[in-house]
Amino acid sequence: MKLTKHIIRIAIILSCICGAVSCKAWLTVDSEDRILEEKLFGSTDGFYTALNGVYIDLVNENLYSGSLTAGMSDILAQYYDTEFDNHSYGSLALYQAEAKRLKADPIWTRAYFLILNLNKIIAHCDAKHGSVLDDTDYGIIKGECLGLRALLHFELFRIFGRSFTLAPAADAIPYVTVEDPQVSPVLKAGEVAEMLLSDLEESMSLLENTDPVRVSGKNETDNGGRNLYNYRNLRMNYFAVKALAARVNMYLGYEYRSEAGKLADEIIEEAGKFFPFSTREEVTGQAVVGSATESAEDRILSSDIIFAVYNVLRGQDMYETYFSNTLEARQLLAMSENGYRNLYPEESDLRTYQWERQKDVVGNDVMAFVKYEAMEVDGKNYPYMIPVLRMSEMYLISAECHSSVDPVNETLAYERLNALRNARQTSSVNTNIANYIEDEYAREFAGEGQLFWYYKRKNASSIPALYNRTRPDVSVSQDNYNFELPQAEGGFRE
């Protein structure tokens, strides 16, 4: 499907409408692309509105309210039991090519759609710097755009590119930096990696001295107007870009490992005070072990989330779509009691509050995933947040780096790993660090779409059937990790 200027224009209009700003008044009067753009980008508020439209669309079901988090990515990671006859996601869990294509193609279309809009904002940032945008707003808006452009390209890179460590010279994806729809060639994986790191470096440079997150942290305050400087955990802030850079370097393999560890350590040292781990009382509403106070429980453990997308319909879009026990058995994503017990062997683990024992529609006992169930808590954002980047990942990256690069620093590696484990109310360990890191990826990122790409990064030939550990491990080939590029995207590739 080719994206046209008409679609891009509609996207900008929708951004205005979603932002509920005064630009609605002139949309019915001036209909030409050029006039619309000049009016929209004629003020700082217009830039903010256009960028806000991109954030709004990140919660699309083909992005972070589905496929990139609790949907496709976690189904592939074998979190959920899909062995029922004619289960809706059974063929996807078996890595069948057509099932993968049906899920991945819409990700491609939606991600590049947003990338084009980001490129348009970036182009106007450069054109209006000094006239419409002062240095601070220019740094924040362009910095966020570059960070989001890298984030979306990296999601596509992990899906459609082959394992980087095995095939750095293989064809990967287009890296689109132009604002108008046109054919963009498929680049080699190494070229994509260079462009990813370049965007992230420029983004960090722009945000380093302009982003208030470095001084005031999340600043979860509604000032009654535009919140460009507030709610920094809901925007691609300086620490989020740096965390993404650590994730990207980690994915690229051993030669990039020292940089990944360095970035992760810097975030831990500088951002830890702003993004601390959640306490038991924050997670459960109680300071001691026991059942949670449902009206106060923070099931996503939001305190250490560096960047999340915000979806006021999260419960409907995610819980009701995938996890509600009112779904037919063939549609429900759940795990067995055996799988749950093996995933969380320590009852004190705070992450166990993301699951509940329930009966499905035919009366079978299942462990239902309630992390994203709709709830209302006055004055809190966490009932609507979907995590994208966490401080906990930085601890795992740091632990893995310090245990596997020269010189090995096992003391610091275990300190990082145990800091996370203790924060989640589990015991310290001092052996088999690689196995425990993998276990923490599985526990920590349930519903967040990171585990399958961890396996791809490690080139794992088999992965555990997490939904029921009495089942044998699932054999995975490179073909299972790879997704074919969409054949109909003539607007982006030759």
Notes on the structure:
- The structure is a single chain.
- Helices cover about 50% and strands about 5% of the residues.
- The protein has about 500 residues and is mainly alpha-helical.
- The strands form three sheets. Strands 2-4-3 form a three-stranded antiparallel β-sheet. Strands 1-5 form a two-stranded antiparallel ribbon. A two-stranded antiparallel sheet has the order 6-7.
- The relative contact order is 0.12.
Descriptive key words:
single chain; about 500 residues; mainly alpha; Serine Threonine Protein Phosphatase 5, Tetratricopeptide repeat; three-stranded antiparallel beta sheet; two-stranded antiparallel ribbon; globular; disordered N terminus; disordered C terminus
What's this entry about, in short?
The protein is mostly helical.
Main sheet overview: 3 strands, antiparallel
How would you sum up the global shape?
globular
Question: How helical, in percent, are the residues?
Answer: 40-55%
Please give the alpha-carbon distance between the first and last residues: 13 Å
Q: Structurally, how many domains make up the residues? A: 2
Strand content: 5-15%
Mean pLDDT: 90
CATH overall fold name of the largest domain: Serine Threonine Protein Phosphatase 5, Tetratricopeptide repeat
Elements, N to C (H/E): HHHHHHHHHHHHHEHEHEEEHHHHEEH
Tell me the radius of gyration. Answer: 22 Å
For the biggest β-sheet, the strand order reads 2-4-3
Counting DSSP E segments of at least 2 residues, the number of strands comes to 7
Please give the CATH class of the largest domain.
Mainly Alpha
> Number of helical runs?
20
Gross CATH architecture of the largest domain? Alpha Horseshoe
